[in-house]
């Protein structure tokens, strides 16, 4: 089974991890094709915070939800501030940020829930999406890991939140590393490397550019998850660089900041699927 595949319905395209689907967790990493955006015309921007016209973004969300067979009013979002705070989504938070930034979950970069058919939706354009699924406990989570979230170990903190709130065991969790900027394209400096004590092996020095490094965010986050107790065979990787594939996925670097955001959606299917 391939870790990651591209599929479509109604000409709305997304990437998905079949193993998560087989475990009872619907998942989708939206492609930028065939949307209603005005900021980058004809693209499927799903984020409200990037300067796109609100009603067009909401229409894109409806198109995405319809293709996935979801209720767009239940999309549950968070503010994403490049931090490492994790929020547990209960019934009162379902639909936070679905239609307005005013009621999104503030100061948060990861969401966890055990509710069925509640689609967690986070936004990305080069940063790393981390998806988590615990079939045994019926729990799922999505985390936003840019370099700041990665060095703050948001992956580990999300696993800990699943343990503390829902008694998940790390060895039962399947995690997936979604489309994001690859080491091939992600140059950082000594400041970033200095924040990554113990994980320096994921910074490849650039001989032609002293003080600069190519950062492997996929490998770094994988190691954080291994250190958190996940099994190596339970960590999937899309292996899709968004900068190299910016015609398919949003890339902040490739498009010099003028881009929408990929939506990464994860939800536990109806309770019977995991009974």
Automatic annotation (TrEMBL):
Keywords: Hydrolase, Metal-binding, Transferase, Zinc. It holds the Pfam family Cu-oxidase_4. It catalyses: inosine + phosphate = alpha-D-ribose 1-phosphate + hypoxanthine; adenosine + phosphate = alpha-D-ribose 1-phosphate + adenine; S-methyl-5'-thioadenosine + phosphate = 5-(methylsulfanyl)-alpha-D-ribose 1-phosphate + adenine; adenosine + H2O + H(+) = inosine + NH4(+). SUPFAM superfamilies: CNF1/YfiH-like putative cysteine hydrolases. Purine nucleoside enzyme that catalyzes the phosphorolysis of adenosine and inosine nucleosides, yielding D-ribose 1-phosphate and the respective free bases, adenine and hypoxanthine. Also catalyzes the phosphorolysis of S-methyl-5'-thioadenosine into adenine and S-methyl-5-thio-alpha-D-ribose 1-phosphate. Also has adenosine deaminase activity. NCBIfam families: peptidoglycan editing factor PgeF. Belongs to the purine nucleoside phosphorylase YfiH/LACC1 family. This is Purine nucleoside phosphorylase. It comes from Phascolarctobacterium succinatutens. The lineage of its organism: Bacteria, Bacillati, Bacillota, Negativicutes, Acidaminococcales.
